[in-house]
Amino acid sequence: MLLRDPDLAEAPLVGLSESYQPGLTDWHAHRRIQLMYATEGSLTVLTEAGSWVLPPSRALLLPGGLRHVLKLRRRAELRTLYLDAETDWITTPAAPQVIAVPALLRELILAAVEAPWDHSIESRSGRLARVLCDELVMLEQEPVHLPELQDSRARKLAAIFYAKPAERRSLMELAAEAGASLRTLERCWKAETGLAIREWVQQLRLMFALEAIAAGARIGDAAFEVGFENPSSFIALFRQHFGTTPARYFGERG
Description:
Blueprint lengths: L12 E8 L2 E2 L8 E8 L2 E5 L2 E5 L3 E5 L5 E5 L3 E8 L13 E4 L2 H11 L10 H15 L2 E2 L2 E3 L4 H12 L7 H8 L3 H12 L3 H18 L4 H7 L5 H12 L3 H4 L5
Antiparallel strand pairs: 1-8, 2-7, 3-6, 3-8, 4-5, 4-7, 5-11, 6-9, 9-10
């Protein structure tokens, strides 16, 4: 539980530095816009609309009032900024956005976390906050999002892949286990997520691999763990989604 409530802070931008152990946090929400950045480790942010992976090279901008929960496979160090949406420094995001964190933005985040919670907008901390928000506006959103399903049968099929991303049984067999025909589930999937089931499963495997690599796994090991036939197929899909290789994305980790 937080000892201080960032929603009640005097300054328009304040921050918290927290350590998290493996597991799930409670569902919660904040009035302010949040910017989450893991300096060590990685985490997945779950909302009722979908999931977002947060490796160390990326940050997540979360709209105010959105309920969410954090899932961690290993220990992580998180720096979270809370921005007052009533200021004219930043446009409130309509949905969570994953953004790249270049060196300048990283240093601004670390400095903002240390700022006093009662600083004025004319102070050094206030000026740094303005620069930080300017940098956020210039960055592009990155596609690290997995839409959630609402249909109960679709959710049952999705749960199978969440529990075992490397599942090898046929979709027809798994659909029967979920209590619907494959054709019915395909229609449901497309309507609710905009993706075919196989595309959604690929996205899920990609996200699980992201989590594993960010937690320290080698790229090839992560690919096999989540169900890719070989590292080459994983790297090809990764490049398709992110425009770069996993090694470059994670700073040349082997």
